[in-house]
Specification:
Length: about 800
């Protein structure tokens, strides 16, 4: 390049002298001399005037363009500059004419062979007055280099793609120029986008963890000064968020003839998770070793190749009963191994000594000195002693306490399960024992109300019935709560009419509301479907609890409003309904809202509170709403009232509802044509139920137990049997089993037998149906409930 520059300068001086001389002959000689010098140069050189028109060039430039000199001289240089570089090219010429400095830049040139990429070095020629007369340009064809770089870039892209598939980041470092390339994945490992992080070697060096820096640099320098072709090193590098990521740096290099690497390339693999796992494992091992050092019941024994004791620690003395002096020198199988295990233990140790097959750790029952068995978890290690002999160590952890704890846990589990079963049976029995007299009281009150009573007496009866209903509701809530705790409360889908449901709720509570001086109304929003699919019974239970709660906390003159509105739904097969119960009552203190729906929590926990209740209603509402995949919220202002909102996703009903499908309606089943056998041991319940049936014109015969019922069936036929479950002499289940299976009752096998019982648990109902009952009717007994059951039986037929 130096010799070329000198020739270039010599030619420039010759051209300058040629333009300055006034002797034509002398000028011609100098021009010929200049052309001769230029043609000696292999570097393409061209001259142009300040207007950009070529005035001269050497043979190398003409060959570069692929034209004769005559085709070049006189043409504008812009004819050959690539369009994309034309503006920059002209800008560079203007700067050159202004600054009068040598300039060098890259541009594309249009030749007869196609577009070529060149580096152009330019300088100016001046006359004796210092005025610029010409621009001289020297061309260096870099097309091959550019193509190689493009090919390399494509190769790097392909390699980077492969490395991304391997989740590695790619880097490429030219040491001579200190140019470096980081792939997008390399930057991504430390939290950056490709455009966020410049490709500079300092970006890598400055991010190495201070504790790792010297080690990484030493590894790098050792590789550079060695003849190795590959290297790898693990270290930490700073992430964008300030944390450090562990990477495995691997690479290779290209070396020059002297063996010095001039280009190093490789990849970084993110090994942070592996390092974290290793650190966690190391910490776990450290904790485990510390634990073994501190725990007393870790027995360690050493044995030589003949299985004779060489080491016996104090825990071994305590665990197996042999002192160290008694154990030393004796064989393993003679001390600890039960007879049935001895041959196998000898074979396993021999295989380890001869073939290197280790004995796996396992839980074993080894033998104590007194002949008892000791449960241990035993692991084994083989190592060389100071004399080069192999020695096996057994590390035994006493499992006696763990076994005892496991046994205690199993026993506690069994006791808990037994307690749960006992609780369920207790609740069932208590339900039966409480419902039986309640049924009698309720039925007798219903009969008593239909007699000639004074207004005061009728009021007394109504208040007593209300107390019975409240006690029955409380009993149901307790049973439902126990089902929730046991996870046995289930939903039963049926066809529901929202409008009928709200109307029926208002009708149910209207007498109580009027008695309290309250206004009870309901509202149905636009677009509510006539029928939906859901658990109408549980939805009715939710509304009953909320309305009952509103009645308790609303003073005379207030109002309660039940609302039903349509919400937007996200699925075509679901309709979201918003139910609301709004009252103008006392409201709820803000500090009570957080625990309002907890079981046994009252809005007012003072002894002087004005409202009765066990605090189960809202807990049941919350549980049922959750089971129905709904949501429950409340808005309340103390002294102004409360509004409870319930959102329930209902299924869409496939067809229009009929009166028999509605939860709140019952078909008329004529009892007057029925012959009914009532089997009930409680005298009050028997009298009340038979009287109510007789008033419906049914023909009723009664029995006090299952034995009497079977006696009556031998000589009578019945359309319906109402059978109590718990009775003396013969219970209801045994009686129905005889009816369904005994030959003498074959004529009664198809007769409907309804379990009329105070057992209200779901599992009770299922058990009764499995034993042969046709249906299940929970006490207290009423004609309305009986008609509902008969209606469902007629639908099944």
């Amino acid at each position: 390049m130096t010799s070329t520059r000198k020739l270039h300068e010599s030619a420039a001086h010759s051209i300058r002298d040629t333009h300055l001389t006034k002797c034509p002959a002398h000028s011609t000689c100098r021009e010929q001399s200049c052309d001769t010098i230029l043609d000696l140069l292999a570097t393409p050189i061209v001259f142009k005037d300040v207007q950009g028109r070529y005035t001269g060039c050497n043979t190398a430039f003409a060959a570069f363009l692929g034209y004769d000199k005559s085709e070049i001289i006189g043409r504008l240089c812009s004819d050959f500059v690539a369009p994309k570089d034309a503006q920059a090219y002209e800008s560079m010429d203007r700067r050159l004419l202004q600054d009068n400095e040598v300039m060098e830049y890259e541009a594309g040139f249009l030749t007869r062979f196609g577009l070529r990429q060149v580096i152009i070095r330019k300088s100016v020629l001046t006359n004796s007055s210092g005025c610029i007369t010409h621009i001289i340009s020297e061309f260096f064809d870099i097309s091959a280099r550019k193509q190689a770089e493009a090919d390399l870039h494509k190769s790097m892209e392909r390699y980077d793609l492969a490395m991304r598939g391997a989740n590695d980041g790619l880097w490429d470092w030219e040491r001579t120029s200190d140019r470096v390339y980081y792939s997008p994945r390399w930057k991504e490992i430390i939290g950056y986008l490709d455009q966020e992080l410049p490709n500079r070697i300092e970006e890598w060096k400055s991010r190495i963890h201070p504790d790792d820096y010297d080690r990484v640099m030493e590894a790098n320098n050792a590789f550079v000064s060695s003849s190795d072709s590959h290297f790898s090193v693990e270290y930490r590098i700073r992430h964008k968020d300030g944390s450090y990521r562990w990477v495995l740096g691997r690479g290779t290099c290209l070396r020059d003839d002297a063996g010095h690497p001039f280009r190093i390339a490789g990849a970084h693999t993110d090994i942070t998770e592996r390092k974290q796992a290793e650190a966690f494992l190391a910490a776990s091992e450290k904790r485990f070793r510390t634990l073994l050092d501190q725990v007393k019941r870790v027995a360690i024994q050493g044995y030589d190749e003949d299985r004779r004791v060489t080491f016996w620690n104090r825990s071994s003395e305590q665990l197996y009963g042999y002192t160290r002096e008694e154990a030393m020198g004796r064989r393993l199988e003679d001390l600890l191994i039960p007879t049935e295990m001895r041959q196998k233990v000898i074979r396993d140790i021999t295989a380890w000594l001869r073939h290197g097959t280790p004995i796996p750790a396992a839980e074993l029952l080894l033998q104590h000195r007194n002949g008892s068995r000791v449960p241990v978890f035993s692991s084994h290690v083989m190592q060389m002693d100071r004399d080069g002999n192999r020695e096996m160590f057994c590390i035994d952890v006493d499992m006696s306490e763990i076994h005892a704890a496991n046994q205690a846990l199993r026993q506690a589990k069994e006791e808990a399960e037994n307690a749960s079963r006992a609780k369920s049976r207790f609740l069932a029995n208590m339900s039966h024992e409480i419902r039986t007299p309640l049924s009698g009281i309720s039925s007798m009150l219903e009969l008593f109300r239909e007699t000639s009573l004074t207004p005061d007496q009728r009021s007394y009866v109504d208040m007593t019935r209300s107390a019975c209903e409240r006690l029955t509701g409380l009993l149901g809530d307790i049973l439902d709560l126990s089902k929730v705790e046991a996870g046995t409360l289930e939903l039963r889908e049926n066809t529901v009419s929202p409008a009928s449901l709200l109307e029926a709720t208002c009708q149910m509570f209207l007498p109580a509301a009027e008695q309290l001086g309250l206004t009870l109304t309901h509202r149905i929003g636009d677009g509510i479907p006539e029928t939906l699919v859901g658990d109408g019974h549980r939805l009715q239970q939710i509304l009953n609890n909320l309305v009952g709660n509103a009645l308790k906390f609303t003073d005379s003159g207030g109002s309660i409003l039940l609302g039903c509105d349509l919400l937007a739904h996200s699925r075509k097969d679901k309709t979201n309904i918003l139910l609301s119960v709004q009252d103008t009552g006392a409201g709820i203190p803000e500090h009570r809202l957080a625990t309002l729906f907890d079981a046994f929590v009252q809005g007012d926990d003072r002894y002087s509170r004005n409202h009765q209740g066990a605090g189960l209603g809202l807990s049941i509402v919350k549980t049922l709403t959750r089971l129905m995949n709904g949501t429950l919220t409340v808005e309340s202002t103390e002294g102004e009232g409360s509004t409870f909102y319930i959102t329930i996703p209902f299924g869409n009903a496939p067809q229009k509802i009929t009166s028999s499908d509605m939860v709140t309606t019952t078909a008329e089943v004529p009892l007057g044509r029925m012959r009914v056998l009532l089997v009930e041991d409680d005298q009050v319940n028997r009298f009340a139920a038979s009287t109510l049936l007789s008033r419906e014109a049914a023909s009723v015969m009664t029995a006090e137990n299952g034995r009497q019922a079977l006696d009556l069936l031998r000589s009578n036929t019945f359309d319906l049997i109402l059978m109590d479950i718990q009775m003396p002499v013969m219970d209801g289940l045994e009686a129905v089993n005889r009816i369904r299976t005994a030959p003498e009752y074959r004529n009664h096998r198809e007769t409907p037998v309804i379990a009329l019982t105070a057992y209200a648990m779901k599992e009770d109902r299922e058990r009764f149906l499995q034993k042969g009952m046709t249906a299940h009717l929970i006490k207290p007994f009423s004609i309305t409930k009986l008609l509902e059951v008969l209606d469902s039986l007629s639908e099944k037929e």
